[in-house]
Amino acid sequence: MATEFNPSRSARAFWGQEVKRHREGAGMSQEALGKILFCSGAYVGLLETAVRNPQEGLSRLLDEHMKTGGHFMRVYEMFKKASRYAEYFEHAAELQTLATAISEFAALLVPGLLQTPDYARALFEAAQPLRKAAENEEMVAARMSRAGLLDREKAPMYWAVLDEAVIRRPIGGPAVMGRQMAHLAELVRNRKALVQVVPFAAGAHALTEGSLCLMAFDEAPPTAYVEAAMTGNLMDEPALVARLTLSYDLVRAAALSPEASLALIESAAEDYANAPNRAVAQE
Length: 283
Fold this sequence. Notes:
Elements: H1 7-25, H2 30-37, H3 41-48, H4 56-66, H5 71-82, H6 87-98, E1 101-106, H7 117-127, H8 133-147, E2 157-163, H9 164-168, H10 174-189, E3 194-198, E4 212-216, E5 223-228, E6 231-235, H11 238-254, H12 258-282
Parallel strand pairs: 1-2, 2-3
Antiparallel strand pairs: 1-4, 4-5, 5-6
Helix pairs in contact: 1-3, 1-5, 2-3, 4-5, 7-8, 10-12
């Protein structure tokens, strides 16, 4: 799948090309290099074709065994500086720009593509209280840039299913949540996203334990991405993707209709907007 120029992808691709160039220059097979790197030959192939990201440990091993004078570590640092996202999410973010359809389930937080700057900022500040404000702002800018995907002329068909906990947890306080809920409603009314809510009354469902993002493409098989704290996993094995798709369909069936979901989101936005007034009245 073709993609627009991306600095982090360019560094990743260059790192992979250099692995192949040095391996072939040394007369080594992928399997032989894999033994040195403590991985399989197939995994070396994924590194060489930039399917897998550069890694610090592998870069050090390559420099040591290939006698490159630190070449691979320098390219790895280029990759790290160019990347706008966490390493485990880098490839998933790129795939989202290529997808024709994105279907997400979120159990706890508003998905990144739907977030407002204030909401994203509140998340980043809570995750790393001692991180410098300038670094947080860079991360907010990167997330908002990614959210622009839904504004493209040929934007992917985007469908999100949110657990009710997503709209009830007051990330950043009532004012931030009020704007976030209003933003969700605006995206729905502008037909940029289809959003459903799974109410608490639905009880347990097929994805109670986590989040999921399914991506479909015109000329490639579908891919699933699941994420937990500080880690994420891309999966394209057909049987597994099919099982996850079924789970998503079951959750979607348990959710409120799009119309009822929009009414709930707008009601939540109004509740958050009125929260400061209620607090003043109680005083």
